[in-house]
Write the structure tokens for this entry.
Amino acid sequence: MLAVHCPRCGRPAPVSLASPDLVACAACHYRGPPPAEAAQGLRAAAHVVFQTDARRRQLSDALRRMVVAASRRHARLVVVFSLASVPITALAAIILLGVWVSPDPEGNLVTGGMVVAAWLGTVGTGAAVLALVRRRQRRIEEACAARPPAAPGEPAACHVCGAPLGGGDGAVARCGFCAADNLIAPAVLERVRARQVVILRSFEQAVSAELASFGRATSGAAAAVVATAVVVPIAAFVLAIAAVLVGESRRQPIDATVRYAAVSTPVGQCIGKIVPKADGGTAVRFGGFRRAELPEEQAIAPGAPVEAVSPGALVGRFVTAKQGAGVVEGVFLSPLKGNSAEVKREDGTSFTSSVAGLCLSGVPSR
């Protein structure tokens, strides 16, 4: 708020660039010319205003519609976002429930992590865009909000020059002196009332700063929303990949509670996890990281001999896996794949594979 010290009582009194030779003090009811230095500063500030294009002080048609229907627009965005998030939330819940009840925990951490990352990326994008839209909306409102009336019944004043405003179109009023657009919605005026700053000197700098603030607030809103919508999913994807890589790099001692057996399959003797079946029988599960030629699980006939295999006994043995063939150099527990083996190929390169799904004979997977 542009103001000068009242020549009579010394209290701050609002002034306007439209009437630099007049100050009206609400405290002592003085009405007359301000100090000469203040009047000169107001004229210089008015010169700064009229040196800029009036369109820089005005809202575009799109921004005018946005600020006029701000609350309804935000409510619609919230409803649309809520409805759009229902399918991905339901799908994520179903997948996570399946992971939770799955009898084979291997790979569940990977699946669950990727599902959660996808959900966070989708919901996070929507929430970030909503927050950005709301923030930009408030920033625009505060940048073009009129100066609240000094007393009930008095008109609001232009946020650029301080001139009194008419009624406008109900939400936005254009100043008759400097042609700046002013938001005069009561809710916005109440919000900015407590944030008013009294400017008692350097009127030129204050007006220039106000014009610059208005320009920054009303430019690039669409670009910022689009940028957020693009950056958030990419960031979520990168974080998910980073989580997988970190999890893959962690190696812990073998989980000895998991029992394995080697059974005959179309590709030779292959190792699977021993799991009980609902009918009381037993099956060998080869897991989600198995070779394509292997079934998901293979039943063991009642009374049939089962060759138990310890993961530690695989060290030094030649095995084939989905990624190729080689000699097992070590076994460990991976947070992502469960009990795993590090296999070294003949060419010196290595890969890791779940213990379930390794084959002790046969040709490499193609």
In short: The radius of gyration is 36 Å. Confidence is low (pLDDT under 50) at residues 362-366.
